[in-house]
Specification:
This protein has 345 residues and is an alpha/beta fold. The protein has helices at 17-27, 63-70, 89-110, 147-165, 185-192, 223-235, 252-259, 268-280, 288-294, 303-308, 317-330; strands at 7-12, 32-39, 50-54, 75-78, 114-118, 170-176, 178-180, 209-212, 220-222, 240-244, 262-265. The N and C termini lie far apart (48 Å).
Length: 345
């Protein structure tokens, strides 16, 4: 590749779970000249070809700086997303939806040739009753009860309009399953289980039983494998959506084998009731509406990513979960504020 053709890539949410994996993958990519990582807080992470800049996508006042950072980009990867506070969905909407609109507006104004956007399995409508995997053509209306799935679905509609109005920009939407790695474990424990749950509790010898809930079957992917798919999408002339997941799909049987524990049937209503009580008392950060959404997620077929991106996950879903559990027990983290490693607190 001619050095003058190497890409200048801007990554929003570059200090998060997938962002840190992606900037490292782009550091090793000969087709990338430089990376500008955008985040609310400048990280301590030092990489040879990556520079950092601070921008808050939730703030209208940061729009001029965002436009400046995007102005000379060859490609923008939009990863920034806020999961909390679930008790204040207006706050997450400000970052996730209005922040995404600000990124897309900046991309359009600068006529950036490539936009790769992080969507999710959560954008999909509930899956078919027979449990068959869905392709990228499955409706993306989300589950209306949960803020996360509503916001992912809304951003999909914004992208529909963007693609119609700006055909000169090649738009790619990535729809991965649950993304895990060892370095993201502390952050994800804080987001979904709370900062006061000790990571040492996640040990096989302490979990003799795992709940077997109707509808609990989901797909997992290592964050580094997701980053590899993003890298390939930047460099190939592809458009549209790509499902991303590793095998096997995770259910109570898979979890039971991981923990050497016995699956036990538990009514989902009982679990939801307990979660709702804990959430209302602010003892659990994950809302019961998100639990409802998870039980309705479809399984995704990943044929298109394997065919058009020539992408294959390097790790199984079990290996990704095992990496996450190692990180939870050890307080795994990275040199960024979102991924700060803590075993407790």
């Amino acid at each position: 590749m001619n050095p003058s053709e190497r890409l200048r890539v801007v990554v929003t949410g570059a200090t998060g779970n997938v962002g840190t994996s992606l900037v490292r993958a782009l550091e090793r990519e000969p087709g990338v000249a430089s990376v500008l990582g955008l985040s609310r807080r400048r990280p301590r992470l030092s990489l040879a070809r990556t520079e950092w800049a601070e921008v808050d996508l939730s703030l209208e006042g940061d729009e001029p700086r965002l436009a400046q950072y995007v102005a000379d980009a060859d490609a923008v990867v939009h990863l920034a997303w806020r999961f909390q506070p679930t008790h204040d969905p207006a706050t997450t909407w400000q970052t996730n939806v209005l922040g995404s609109v600000r990124v897309f507006d900046a991309v359009a104004a600068a006529r950036v040739p490539v936009l790769v956007c992080a969507s999710s399995v959560g954008a999909y409508s509930p899956g078919p009753r027979n449990g068959a995997p869905v392709s990228e053509s499955w409706p993306t209306h989300g589950w209306p009860g949960a803020a996360y799935t509503r916001e992912k679905a809304y951003v999909e509609r914004v992208l529909d309009t963007f693609e119609r109005d700006h055909p000169q920009t090649r738009v790619v939407r990535m729809r991965p399953g649950f993304l895990f790695k060892e370095e993201s474990a502390s952050e994800q424990r804080r987001i979904f289980a709370g900062r006061w749950l000790p990571g040492q509790l996640f040990r096989p010898e302490l979990l003799p039983l795992v709940p077997d809930l109707d509808g609990l079957r989901f797909q997992v992917l290592h964050s580094d494998d997701a980053a590899d798919a993003y890298r390939r999408a930047l460099l190939r002339d592809v458009r549209g959506a790509f499902n991303l997941a590793a095998e096997p799909a995770v259910d109570a049987g898979v979890l039971g084998r991981m923990f050497a524990a016995r699956p036990v049937k538990v009514p989902s209503s009982a679990v939801r009731g307990a979660l709702a009580t804990a959430w209302r008392m602010r003892m659990a950060p994950a809302s019961p509406d998100l639990f409802d959404a998870v039980l309705r997620l479809p399984l995704m077929a990943t044929d298109r990513a394997r065919r058009e991106l020539e992408w294959t996950p390097a790790r199984t879903s079990v290996e990704a979960l095992e990496a996450f559990l190692r990180g939870v027990r050890a307080g795994g983290g990275d040199a960024t504020e979102p991924l700060a490693g803590r075993r407790f607190g």
